[in-house]
Amino acid sequence: MKLTDRIFVKFFYKKIKIIIQRSYKKGYSQGKDKGYRKGHDDGVLKYHIRREIDTFSMSAIDNSIYGPENIGVTRELEQLMIEKVRVATKAGIISSPSPSQWEMIFSDHPATCVVAGAGSGKSTTLILRVVFMHFYLKIPLNKITVISFTKKSCEELSEKLNKVFTFWDEGYDKESVNSLVSTFHSLIYRFSLNSMPGISVFDFLGEHKNENESALEISLGKKNNEQIDILKSVYTELYNNNKEFKICIDKLVDFSITSSSSSDEKEQRSWLINYAAERDLALTKKINDLWSKDGKWPIEGIVPGPVKCFHVNGNIFYANGYVEHNKMPVFYQVILGVRNYLMGMTLLILMKPIPRKKYF
């Protein structure tokens, strides 16, 4: 090949190489930029602030349970009720409500929720609420229901209602008043009879209760014969046809056979009392010595012991001393550290005197 041809080929090859390199760098740079922008845009969390207040709309009022109208409570009706309750209070029929209780009694909202603790007068307030609804707001008794959780509380509420209703109207319908109060279980039971006719509730099988009885209560005690027969049939069917149930029952049977029988709880308590009594006198003396070594014993006005304090199962237990002027027993407590150092002390005085003739 001629020299000129070789120079041309070399120059052409070099030119092509430069063009390829430039094209690669340009394509790489453009692709990188484009890919970065796309990835960045996809990965950015964007918040769009829009004014949506104008498009907000309230949902329709649900009138399926409670209507939108309040109960027709007026100031005149409140005054009549207050005057009558004042007379009933003087007669000892019922206690006088507090301002917060009056607020509940006179509530004009059909769905009023009140939360109160024990001994706060819930029963009294509830009874006066029923009286106000029936005698002043003219709500029929068959439109009122009072629900409690136990049969005993239902009986107490019915008794109080009858007492108060007698004061307001001696000719009231006692049967209707008694039907106002029911337990939660009784209410559900009546619902089940209406919604599932022909189906018996297991908890009331064999009871032969009147479905209109006001205070049905689920029994937590011994099952009756009808309930036992159903449980036995269900158990037998499961044991014969359900493999997993059978395995679990077999494991329980094996465990009951192989496990050691536990001692009676009363026997354990008696053993602990006897064990404590054996070392009580020595422990009382030791505690007195520790208080004395710490310079806190004796204390003025307290006669040092040990002194006999009480008996349990024929065992004598001792007090560390007693208050001289009223014979109150005194007990000291000692908290010992790992090196038997006296870490803390407590003095306890019982509020019941020790009979002098019996013990000292």
From TrEMBL:
GO terms for molecular function: 3'-5' DNA helicase activity; ATP binding; DNA binding; hydrolase activity. The chain crosses the membrane at residues 330-350. The keyword Acetylation does not apply. InterPro entries: DNA_helicase_UvrD/REP, P-loop_NTPase, UvrD-like_ATP-bd. Residues 99-220 form the UvrD-like helicase ATP-binding domain. Keywords: ATP-binding, Helicase, Hydrolase, Membrane, Nucleotide-binding, Transmembrane, Transmembrane helix. Pfam families: UvrD-helicase (PF00580). It is an enzyme of class 3 (hydrolase). It comes from the Bacteria. One of its GO terms (biological process) is recombinational repair. Its EC number is 3.6.4.12. GO terms for cellular component: cytosol. PANTHER family: DNA HELICASE IV (PTHR11070:SF63), UVRD / RECB / PCRA DNA HELICASE FAMILY MEMBER (PTHR11070). This is ATP-dependent DNA helicase yjcD. It comes from Klebsiella pneumoniae. The gene is yjcD_2.
